[in-house]
Each structure stands twice: as C-alpha cells, then as structure tokens.
Design brief:
Oligomer: single chain
Strand content: 15-25%
Strand order of the largest sheet: 3-2-1-4
Number of domains: 2
Radius of gyration: 22 Å
Helix content: 40-55%
Largest sheet: 4 strands, mixed
Number of helices: 4
Distance between the termini: 42 Å
Shape: elongated
Structural class: alpha+beta
Number of strands: 4
C-alpha cells in the first residue's frame, strides 16, 4: 500500500488516499486509535515526512447553512416557530424552547 495523501475529516479522523496497485486508488478512514494497525501505518508515513492536510469543508456556504437549519428544523418545525412567534405571552413556554427558537432566528438571519 502506497499512501498518496492524508487529510483530516470534520470529526478529526484521517482520510487516507492510497494506491493499492497501479490500477486501484482507494480511500479509507482511519480513527485516532494507536491500537489500530492502519493508524500505525499512517503514523509511520507522518514520521517519514508525510504531512496531514487540514479539514476542508465541501459545499457552498448556502449548503452548510441549509444543513444547519435542517438539523434545527427536526427539533422545532417552522409551524411551531410561527405559533410561538404569534404568542403575546410566552411566560408558560419552557426556556429551552425559547432558546431553540432564538437560535433558529439567529441562524436564519445569517443566510448567505
């Protein structure tokens, strides 16, 4: 196995681009676990002068924003936001719900 490049992923593991043979390029994900045999191979590659590339997020700023909004929409659909916004007195609403509502409003205001 010949390692071509190693880059960090979003969660801090490594993604290794390797040549298995002349016709076979592959990618594998290697966790930061010294007991993992692939971790040892990558560590040897680093010790020999290999440089791990930084994590580079893929997608446009809008795609990232949309993904974040979609995650928040699972906990609080837009219809619930509208109901809460229409309430004159929110004293009976749990603080965590109000915090989630504000977080969605804040994120929505940053739409690219």
């Amino acid at each position: 196995m010949e390692i071509r490049t190693v880059d960090f992923t979003e969660d801090g593991t490594w993604v290794v681009n390797k040549n298995v043979d002349a016709n076979d390029d592959r990618q594998m994900f290697v966790p930061h676990n010294p007991a993992n045999r692939h971790y040892a191979i990558v560590q040897e590659w680093i010790d020999a002068g290999g440089v791990v590339g930084p994590y580079v997020p893929h997608g446009t700023p809008y795609q990232h924003w949309h993904n974040e909004i979609s995650i928040l929409d699972k906990d609080m659909p837009r219809s619930l936001e509208d109901m809460l916004d229409g309430m004159a007195d929110k004293s009976g609403v749990a603080q965590i719900t109000l915090d989630r509502l504000q977080a969605k409003k804040d994120l929505r205001a940053t739409k690219p």
